[in-house]
Design brief:
Largest sheet: none
Shape: globular
Strand content: under 5%
Number of strands: 0
Structural class: mainly alpha
Oligomer: single chain
Length: about 200
């Protein structure tokens, strides 16, 4: 297959939205580096919206492609990891909020997901997300948005052992790990049923 044929085969609205989400990553980084926290947040929300939109369009109009199966979750993970790292590093005008332990746990979890998805896709096995996985992703996005208002939570909940935004973040990480366990379990079960592993 030539490059032109590959592009023609995968050139549809969901995949274009996925590429836009990838292109928004450097835009987010630039805005955050300039100290434009809320503009960076707006870009993050826009990227999250394209993630929601491309999946719905792909399923509704049967525009699911191998490119989309691989790049859609990858683009989502790149944006989420970028947002997490930025709020863990901070800069001169934006204080660091997210603990590095949370970033490392999420990075390992996402790495397992990407490698697992690539291996399963090689054997034509697609393990679709579960309700828990979707709930974990929604909670995670909500927690990241809440982190941008950390200073407000500190003022409002000064006597709490942990601010609500960080509580929500850790809960979403726990739920994400539960979703990962279910994903791995289902993938292994499918692989056994197809005789790929014993």
């Amino acid at each position: 297959m030539t490059i032109r044929e590959y592009i023609r085969q995968n050139w549809n609205v969901p995949n274009v939205l996925t590429l836009i989400r990838l292109l928004l990553v450097p835009v987010y980084v630039a805005l955050f580096a300039l100290g434009e926290k809320y503009l960076a947040l707006t870009v993050f929300l826009l990227a999250s919206f394209t993630d929601l939109l491309d999946g719905r369009i792909a399923r509704k109009y049967n525009l699911i492609t191998d490119f989309g199966k691989l790049m859609d979750p990858l683009a989502d993970k790149v944006m989420v990891i970028t947002a997490m790292c930025s709020m863990a590093i901070g800069n001169k005008t934006i204080p660091a909020v997210i603990p590095w332990a949370a970033v490392i746990i999420l990075f390992i979890k996402e790495l397992v997901m990407v490698i697992g998805s690539a291996v399963m896709l090689r054997y034509q096995i697609v393990v679709y997300s579960t309700l828990i996985g979707k709930a974990a992703q929604c909670m995670f996005i909500a927690s990241l948005v809440a982190v941008y208002f950390h200073e407000w939570f500190v003022t409002l909940c000064s006597d709490w052992f942990m601010t609500p935004d960080l509580i929500l973040l850790w809960l979403s990480i726990v739920l994400s790990l539960v979703a990962l366990f279910i994903y791995v379990t289902r993938a292994l079960r499918t692989a056994r049923e197809q005789g790929i592993i014993r």
